[in-house]
Amino acid sequence: MALTLAEAAKLSNDMLLQGVVETIIKDSPVIRELPFVEITGNGLTYNQENTLPTIDFYDVGDNWAESTPTFTQKTANLKIMGGDADVDNFLKATRSNLQDLEAAVVELKAKALRDKFDEIFIYGNATASPKQFDGLRKLIDTGTASAQVIAAGASGATLTLAMLDELIDAVKGGKPAMLLMSRRSRRKIGALVRAAGGMMETDRDKWGNFIQFWDGIPIGVNDWILDTHVVSGSVETATTGGTCSAIYAIQFGEGALCGLTAPGHLTVEPIGSLETKDATRTRIKWYVSLALFSMVKAAALIGVQD
Predict the structure, then answer these.
(1) Are 173 and 232 members of one domain?
(2) Could you tell me the CA-to-CA distances from 168 to 111, 172, 206, 215, 246 in Å, in that order?
(3) Left if phi > 0, otherwise alpha if psi is -120 to 50, otherwise beta: which for 272?
């Protein structure tokens, strides 16, 4: 069963852990919505659907043709993500009269973990950096022309609402659960809607954050999506040196895009007093990865210019 990080935190009585998880999910639309599957072991091998078998019509006495689906076997390995938060005992004893110093340091470490996850969620590349898991850009493979990679233009083009509809249509088996983009792209969509005489649909989530919608699909902002991509033809050739961005349409779930985690999800481990200095240490760690079980459950619009 896949649980979101927020739901998994409800099963813990550790108040520090709950505080850390709430800090992480509050400002990350991806972590708020992405379900995680607990796996036993250090990785998961799964079959990603490529093509369906064929079906035909026959006359009486015809020979029937056999056909089979094709798959690509993928492996997602859990990666170790985290960091230590040290608090000097002297500062804790003398400077915590107005604010819990340890809680503040752990909260900042949790925010740093959130930012790193959001970055690797997009740009993770286990081939170039083996300590990372593969991110969305690598899983969709925006460097190869395919039905799931839509180019705005041969070298990029100004975003239009028709391009956004084409991106949504590239995701099969239901609407995407989220459109993920940079702030520049979100501003451009708002400008296009206003120019057409409309207004963006908005609502609040349970944390009080405003959410905008296009065609009933929530728009998520990832501050790590760069607006400096380089596009040539129908593929991305680099993430820096150009003026293009990318917008991702994603379905979440066990048959679509899903997070992988070791049992226990995110953990907060009190290490205690250190030997070499007068301080206490808290370790935040997460054994985590990402898996895309079906290619048609995610798509990318590349070459998006302002």
Answers:
(1) yes
(2) 31, 9, 26, 9, 14
(3) left
In the structure encoding, which two tokens stand for residue 75, read together?
């492996």
Q: Please report how the helices 161-169 and 183-195 are oriented relative to each other, as an axis angle in degrees rounded to 10.
A: 120
CATH of the domain at 17: 3.30.2400.20
DSSP state letter for 296:
G
Structure tokens at 196: 């057409």
Distances (CA, A) of 228 to 145, 153, 161: 20, 15, 21
CA dist 226 to 36, 137, 158, 175, 195, Å? Answer: 26, 12, 16, 25, 25
Element (H, E) at 189: helix 183-195
pLDDT in tens, 35-69: 999 998 888 998 887 778 899 999 999 999 998 88
C-alpha 82/C-alpha 69 separation (Å) is 40
The answer on 235 and 213 residing in a single domain is yes
Q: What is the pLDDT of residues 5-19, one digit of tens each?
A: 676 666 566 777 777
C-alpha distance from residue 184 to each of 123, 150, 225, 227 (Å): 18, 19, 10, 8
> What tokens appear for 99 in the block?
């604010």
> pTM to 2 decimals?
0.87
The closest alpha carbon to 306, from 200, 184, 223, 214, belongs to 184
